[in-house]
Structures
1.
Amino acid sequence: MIKQILKEPRRSSELPEVMEQYEKAIENPRTHVGPQGTGALLFAVFRGKVSEGIDFTDDRGPGQMRDFRWDTVS
């Protein structure tokens, strides 16, 4: 299983290009990822640029990975 790994860009102006790469990797992974391609992973900030007005449906639905780091005060 080989997936293209993408990350949310810092600049909003770069987001359309990243989303296009993500869509292409999902729609036709063997062409855009490689002969053993199976899709893409898109890492993004929760409630960041990627979440603004974009509806992920069907096979584009988001999985969530969370990192909760809490500093404890003694």
2.
Amino acid sequence: MGLWSCLYNDRSSKAQQPRKTIIILGDEGCGKSCQVSVFTKDDFAINRLPVPSTSNISYIEIDGKMIELILREPAGLDDVTRLNSLSGNKKDAVLLCYSIDNPCSFRNASYKWAPEINKRCPDVPIVLVGNKKDLQNDKYTICELGTLHEEPIGWQAGQKMAEKINAFSYMECSAKTREGIRELFETAARTAVLKKKCPTVVRK
């Protein structure tokens, strides 16, 4: 029973663990890649270049059980191609993201992304995610958006949106400060395990 046996047993046990696939969607530049990178690698790279598609594997313990999470982000492509990733591929939950400092991405989550997700995979639960929470009360961001007669998206607006699109839950997080990142993917894993629509649960 040497090192190889220990490694084999560890890999074998992981192979037997439940595998859940999470699709991550939302406007380009709303923080999807950063949230995944911080969760899987503890790496925050603000100038990350978009790629055609990324897939990361991570393990997370939920209620005493290890879950293998496959995190798929169809990034760097046009919206139609990204939405087409919902067809045919295995998926247990969708993280629908917007950026708290970008009201346009918030509106697109409701009027562009959510209707297509609900149409293409009506039985797959959605977690609505407000990224870049660190900018919610940032004075510069508030000032910049104010010149456009806009403001950062607040908690209540996100909660209302989640209820409107029948999301499983609503989360806010910041990849930059790490706030809410672990909780986000714990919620994603639980959502994928349950894999059913239900009334919105909100978490800060």
3.
Amino acid sequence: VEIPEKDLGIAAETCFSIISNPSRSIAERAFAMTVLYRILQREPDLMHEFQLVIESTLQENIPALNARYRNIQKELNRNKTKL
């Protein structure tokens, strides 16, 4: 599902909030990472904030979130080579 341009900001903020909140379920946080990755493809200026949030999340050492991040990182690296 494509997020309308006018809603990208609120969607990104919501995703950042969910990812940063350890009381949210792992599934919610992992899905928010995926949605945020899709937003980053359209709004690359958010990459720095994404990296900061992910760094703190990875310190929690939750295997499912670490795996999701590795998959996203692979996609980001693959997309860089296509540019």
